[in-house]
Amino acid sequence: KQRLDRRRERFRLQYEGSPVEPTDEVPAPSLDDSLLDDGGTKCLLSVLEAETTPISIGILKEKCGDPKEQELLNSLEKLTYQKVITLNATQNLQVVSVESKKINSLLGRFDKKRKRRKLNTALTADCAEFLLNKPSAVQSESKKLGEEIQALLNHKSAREKTIIENLKSNKTAQLREFCEWVTKQECKRGNVKYGSCKKLHFRKLIYPHTDVHLGDCSFLNTCFHMETCKYVHYEIDEEDQRAHMRMRQRQAASVRAKNSAAMLVSDSRNLAMTKANLTPPQWIQCDIRKLDFDVIGKFTVIMADPPWDIHMELPYGTMTDDEMKKMGIEKVQDDGFIFLWVTGRAVELGRELLNIWGYERVDDIIWVKTNQLQRLIRTGRTGHWLNHGKEHCLVGVKGNPMGFNRGLDCDIIVSEVRDTSHKPDEIYGMIERLSPGTRKLELFGREHNTQNNWLTLGNQLDGVHLEWEDVKTKYFNRYGMALPF
Fold it and tell me: What's the burial of 102, exposed, middle or buried (CB within 10 Å: 0-12/13-18/19+)?
């Protein structure tokens, strides 16, 4: 208290013109060394800038969060020595004048210094993070060695290259993409390269009962009530389709002309070798539950799309779970693969059936369904809780199959939905590449399922057609000309 009283007296004597008694105190440091490092001084400067003079000590203490009086006097003393403020050293000290320009300058320097500190802190943190994340010499060497090993593993061998070359499609089988603008009108309106667009377009089907304001039909070309549906439907633009056919015919004629003189061209030889291993489609119309599987022999690959009982109205009969379990699938394969299509409800049942039939599930294939416009289906006709936009095909292996090709295809098929239970044709190419030239069996097939190298069984086929002599002999010895129902 005595020290504060002496300081007040010294202020009073100084500003009344009386000489100030000498003291042992160190002179006030410079503005740059003291004020800019004092967080309380910035608050004081803000109050001095905002308040109207004269300003009493009480008001300054209240506005600055009630600091200690000695700290406030120290700050005022520093500002007085720098001629930023002028004090009236009466009994109650007051700030009688303020240099606004100097205060604004000091506040600006406070902000600059704060930004520099923030930047320096961020740079320090970034440098520390960079040093922590930088791999050591041992880690860098290990990573380099791992990349070299991965490159060697990914490098195709001569045998793999030969297999891929032999399984390539015929060059005349050219595919053509659908335009993302759907119709020619939309392509012309939004595509800057419309004149050079070679993709297929769709044409809207507008009938007298169609209301274009309702938009596109959710089911498009799979709609069951297209004759009365008021939504918009589509078909492929006839002009694009004719142009595509003319292009394919020209390509086929060019290839035939090139190969007519010499049949030893490598592509022709590979195609001839492939055709030599192909057997025309075969089928048996039958009730699979009553067929004696011993008459059809053994197969390397089996694919089945069972009529699961999914508790929905379907255009075909279904089988119970117990009937599925009693099927003698184990009789038609010793070593090989099975591809089992399952619905949402039957996923767990399908895995159980693989175990019963003696298979180990090794993979799943997912069919992502698209509609006619090649867009993902969001309003499917199946699914109790969510609309199903995909289907699963369980892949099982039995015994020790030999001569198959690994790593040629992925486990996802993106393909358009067609008729009920009509699976994507891509699955046949995938299986043929996995096990080329081998005997394959499809259960619960229909006419559109018949393929080269495949024997198809189902009750919706037409009669019996067999090519393999051993199967033909066993079948007619067992059933004669009758159908096994």
Answer: middle
pLDDT tops 70 at residue 365 = yes
90 has a pLDDT exceeding 50: yes
Query: Using one digit for the tens of pLDDT, what is the confidence trace for 311-342?
Result: 666 667 788 888 888 888 889 999 999 999 99
Low-confidence winner among 162-166, 398-402, 403-407 (lowest mean pLDDT): 162-166
For 1, residues 6+ apart whose C-beta sits below 8 A from its C-beta are none
Q: How many CB atoms lie under 10 A from the CB of residue 327?
A: 19
In this predicted structure, the answer to whether residue 268 has a pLDDT above a threshold of 60 is no
Query: What strand order describes the sheet that includes 85-88?
Result: 55-56, 94-98, 85-88
Phi, psi at 454, each rounded to 5°: -115, 145
- Backbone angles phi and psi of 182, in degrees to 5: 70, -70
Question: For residue 414, what are the CA distances in angstroms to 216, 304, 359, 364?
Answer: 21, 20, 27, 14
Taking residues 278-307, report their average pLDDT.
92
Give per-residue burial for 42-58: e unless 16+ CB within 10 Å, then b. bbbbebbeeeeeebebe
Query: Which residues are registered as beta bridge partners of 390?
Result: 368
Three-class SS string for the chain? CHHHHHHHHHHHHHHCCCCCCCCCCCCCCCHHHHHHHCHHHHHHHHHHHHCCCCEEHHHHHHHCCCCCHHHHHHHHHHHHHCCCEEEECCCCCEEEEECHHHHHHHHHHHHHHHHHHHHHHHHHHHHHHHHHHCCCHHHHHHHHHHHHHHHHHHCCCHHHHHHHHHCCCCCCCCCCCEEEEEEHHHHHHHCCCHHHCCCEEEEEECCCCCCHHHCECCCHHHCCCCCCCCCEEEEECHHHHHHHHHHHHHHHHHHHHHHHCCCCCHHHHHHHHHHHCCCCCEEEECCCCCCCHHHCCCCCEEEECCCECCCCCCCCCCECHHHHHCCCHHHHCCCEEEEEEECCCCHHHHHHHHHHHCCEEEEEEEEEEECCCCCECCCCCCCCCCCCCEEEEEEEEECCCCCCCCCCCCCEEEEECCCCCCCCCHHHHHHHHHCCCCCEEEECCCHHHCCCCEEEEECCCCCEECCCHHHHHHHHHHHCCCCCC
